Automatic annotation (TrEMBL):
InterPro entries: Jacalin-like_lectin_dom, Jacalin-like_lectin_dom_sf
Keywords for the protein's UniProt record, in alphabetical order: Coiled coil
SUPFAM superfamilies in the record: Mannose-binding lectins
UniProt key word Coiled coil: yes
Alphabetical list of Pfam families matching this protein: Jacalin (PF01419)
Domain Jacalin-type lectin: 55-183
Name of the protein this chain belongs to: Jacalin-type lectin domain-containing protein
Length: 317
């Protein structure tokens, strides 16, 4: 997990606008700013795979009696260049500044907040925002809360599975933020990309589906392991026969040794270990210590292979 690297690609999905639907305000969209910086259109950004990675680097929030203003800062990577792009400061000029600095590889998993229900005058604004972020390289969740006052209408935003929030849009007046929304971005981790490539090889005409891919990989592993188990069991049978022949009158002790070894694999208590030592001592008059150890090691190996095969078979059901 420590080596996990994510890249985030815009997928064209926008969250709902959250806040007081009766409050006015003009529409604001940071993707317009990013498109202008990249000398393209917002439509092209969403549809033409121009952005290879997009993430929030920093958020500034100004607040006093409500959230006066907000500004997002982005790191955007295209095919040939990485840009640091400052979104516009949206809202008013009042309030005290609070800064949220993101670590490298930190992403917005969810947002919650509160707003005033009154749409008249200087009311009906966003009054509280809470960002829930995740750092995959550390498997760590962080919380950031900015609150002007405690209102009684709350909202929660969370993107679809496999996505994070990447870019801000919303509504604002000349003195406040009234509504908030976010563009979603799909997680493209190295592991995800490898799974997708493998899925394309196995199912070239079907979209990526992890459960189907997992089932197919399990089936292929079972088909690969089953003949190996049969082959190893045949070899072990031949080895056991040779050891019994060499043991002469003590051939039944070989069976006792192997039966006790099976018990030891499942329940390694002192009594069973004592029996193993006794049987090996008897057989050492006919077999070398290396021969005995090789016989027991092969049995342990086959037992593990059989368990692996049984687990694969269960997962195929």
């Amino acid at each position: 997990m420590d080596d996990e690297k994510w890249t985030i690609k815009l997928n064209g999905t926008k969250s709902l606008l959250n806040g007081n639907i009766n409050k006015g305000g003009g529409e604001i969209d940071d993707l317009d700013t990013i498109a202008k910086e990249l000398d393209t259109s917002k439509s092209d950004l969403l549809n033409n795979n121009i952005i290879k990675d997009i993430r929030v680097k920093q958020i500034k929030i100004w607040l006093e009696n409500h959230i006066d203003a907000i500004q997002f800062f982005y790191k955007v990577t295209t095919n040939d260049k990485t840009y640091s792009i400052n979104g516009n400061k949206h809202g008013g000029s009042g309030g005290k500044e609070a800064i949220i600095n993101f670590e490298d590889g930190e992403y917005i998993l969810a947002i919650s907040g509160k707003y005033d229900p009154n749409e008249f005058g200087r009311y009906g604004n966003l009054d509280q925002l809470k960002f829930i972020n995740y750092i995959p390289s550390k498997n760590h969740i962080k919380f950031y809360k900015n609150s002007a006052k405690d209102c009684n209408i709350s909202f929660d935003m969370s993107p679809a599975a496999g996505t994070v929030y990447t870019c801000f849009f919303g509504k604002c007046t000349n003195y406040s933020i009234t509504r908030i929304g976010m563009y979603e971005g799909s997680i493209q981790s190295q592991q995800f990309q490898q799974f997708q490539q493998l899925s394309d090889l196995l199912f070239p005409s079907k979209p990526y589906d992890f459960s189907v891919l997992k089932q197919e990989i399990t089936r292929l592993k079972y088909q690969e392991l089953a003949p190996r188990v049969r082959d190893e069991k045949n070899k072990f049978g031949e080895l056991t026969t040779n050891m019994k022949t060499k043991a002469g009158d003590f051939e039944k002790v070989v069976d006792l040794l192997l039966d006790t070894q099976k018990q030891a694999i499942k329940n390694n208590d002192q009594l069973i270990q004592g029996q193993l030592i006794a049987y090996k001592s008897v057989l050492e008059s006919k077999l070398t210590k290396d021969e005995l150890q090789n016989l027991l090691s092969k049995q342990t190996e086959i037992n593990q292979l059989e368990e692996n095969l049984a687990n694969l078979q269960i997962n195929l059901q």
